């Protein structure tokens, strides 16, 4: 068979597959290798599609589930010639109605969903509720993950809100080349949340998805996530001592001691209100209204015991800051107190003017990171590795070193997961290796084991 005859036969086969699958055939003039690769890719889906009625095909296409995918399409990345013909020739698939969401930005609903007013109404309510159920950091992560998935779908011609585990698995397989397993799981969580937001079902434990996630973990391993460098008790003493006797120093000293003692996340620390803290004889009681593990806002009260050393006593530090904040607020000329200030609902740790006057404006969580690093520099400590989580991890690490049980640490830090809490004490626990410690002591004492 001549080359021309082979090309004509392949072209006829490609046109036949394209007609069955309702997709564009390869453009005229492509090479024989590309043409054969295109045919090889689409032959199996076309066979699966031959038994479907026109109505069934249109229904699948309108939901974004066309062309059909096989196990091969989940495991392999399509060749370039295939990527240019992935979009089906159905107007219903490329017809969308935008739904503005706070969680994911604008979601483009396929017309089959957008035409259902009941689903749209439910989706809008789900959007409002979902926004309230997620922390700001989670929302940012989900929105970024969804944006990347939507761009990937646009590149390869898939409908983002397709509900097809095979498509999701294909995306996760591609993303796993660049992302750590934890980031791949976050990507999946965002995709599932977006589907559920508009009333679409997506099984995150589907075999196609589970196999890709399992493979990504085995391929890259599950090394421990790098934790923030902890501000241990001795480091905390140096940071507090380095705080200047200025308005900023008074505030930062109180923030360091409250953040460490209550093991706060940085978002919890900046959300504290004046009424959330109470100075008592034994120490300070801190009410955490809402946290990452308490999205319903049930709240919890945490006790921070006072110290004998006045330089590290949370009672003295907090009293000094509240005295400055209160006197400055009342002393503002011609500026009436806000309702929040009268009720004590104003933010406890607020921004300051250049002259040290409290402005009442809430600090950002980034300000906590900056505060810790600046305190480290003043104390002559390398700030690299310290973050907004360093106070929280420092309390856990220091408590473990001083004999506190894991249950006590979990209670103070409000950890619900044992595995999560163990991450924060892992560095300290590593040094409690009895065998290694014994050998080091024997070596220091000059003791030998009696063998060569």
Task: Provide structural commentary.
The protein has three domains: 3-83, no CATH class; 95-220, Tyrosine recombinase, N-terminal domain (DNA polymerase, domain 1), CATH 1.10.150.130; 233-244 and 253-317 and 361-430, Intergrase catalytic core (hpI Integrase, Chain A). Helix content is 56%, strand content 8%. It has helices at residues 3-21, 32-49, 54-62, 71-75, 80-83, 91-94, 111-114, 117-133, 136-156, 165-175, 181-197, 207-220, 233-241, 247-261, 266-271, 314-331, 339-343, 365-378, 390-401, 406-413, 418-430, 434-444, and strands at 96-101, 105-110, 277-279, 283-288, 300-305, 350-352, 358-362. The chain has a three-stranded antiparallel beta sheet, with helices on one face. A two-stranded antiparallel sheet has the order 1-2. The longest helix is centred in the N-terminal third of the chain and has 21 residues, at 136-156. The termini are far apart. Residues 87-95, 111-116 and 328-335 have low confidence and may be disordered.
């Amino acid at each position: 068979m001549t080359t021309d005859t082979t090309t004509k036969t392949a072209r006829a086969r490609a046109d036949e597959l394209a007609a069955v699958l309702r997709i564009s055939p390869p453009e005229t003039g492509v090479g024989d290798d590309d043409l054969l690769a295109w045919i090889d890719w689409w032959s199996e889906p076309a066979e699966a599609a031959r038994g479907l009625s026109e109505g069934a095909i249109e229904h699948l296409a309108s939901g974004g589930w066309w062309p059909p995918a096989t196990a091969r399409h989940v495991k392999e990345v399509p060749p370039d010639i295939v990527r240019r013909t992935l979009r089906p020739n159905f107007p219903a698939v490329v017809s969308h109605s935008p739904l503005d969401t706070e969680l994911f930005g604008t979601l483009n609903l396929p017309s089959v969903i957008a035409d259902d007013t009941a689903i749209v109404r439910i989706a809008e309510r789900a959007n409002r509720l979902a926004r309230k159920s997620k922390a700001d950091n989670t929302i940012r992560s989900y929105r970024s993950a969804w944006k990347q998935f939507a761009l990937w779908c646009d590149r390869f011609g898939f409908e983002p809100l397709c509900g097809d585990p095979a498509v999701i698995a294909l995306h996760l397989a591609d993303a796993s080349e660049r992302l750590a397993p934890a980031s791949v799981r976050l990507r999946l969580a965002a995709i599932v949340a977006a589907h559920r937001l508009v009333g679409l079902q997506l099984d995150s434990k589907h075999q196609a998805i589970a196999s890709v996630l399992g493979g990504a973990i085995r391929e890259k391993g599950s090394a421990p996530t790098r934790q923030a460098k902890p501000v241990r008790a001795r480091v905390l003493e140096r940071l507090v001592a380095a705080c200047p006797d200025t308005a900023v120093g008074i505030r930062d000293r109180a923030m360091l001691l409250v953040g460490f003692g209550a093991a706060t996340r940085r978002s919890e620390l900046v959300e504290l209100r004046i009424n959330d803290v109470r100075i008592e004889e034994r120490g300070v009681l801190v009410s955490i209204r809402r946290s990452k593990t308490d999205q319903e806002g049930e709240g919890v009260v945490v006790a921070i015991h006072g110290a004998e050393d006045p330089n590290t006593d949370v009672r003295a530090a907090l009293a000094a800051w509240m005295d400055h904040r209160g006197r400055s607020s009342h002393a503002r000329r011609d500026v009436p107190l806000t309702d929040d200030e009268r009720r004590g609902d104003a933010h406890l740790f607020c921004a300051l003017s250049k002259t040290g006057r409290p402005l009442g404006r809430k600090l950002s969580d980034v300000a906590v990171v900056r505060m810790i690093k600046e305190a480290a520099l003043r104390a002559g400590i390398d700030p690299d590795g310290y973050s907004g989580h360093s106070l929280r991890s420092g309390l856990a690490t220091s408590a473990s070193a001083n004999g506190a049980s894991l249950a006590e640490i979990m209670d103070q830090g409000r950890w619900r997961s044992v595995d999560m809490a163990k991450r924060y004490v892992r560095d300290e626990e590593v040094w409690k290796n009895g065998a290694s410690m014994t050998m080091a002591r024997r070596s220091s004492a000059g003791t030998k084991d009696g063998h060569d």
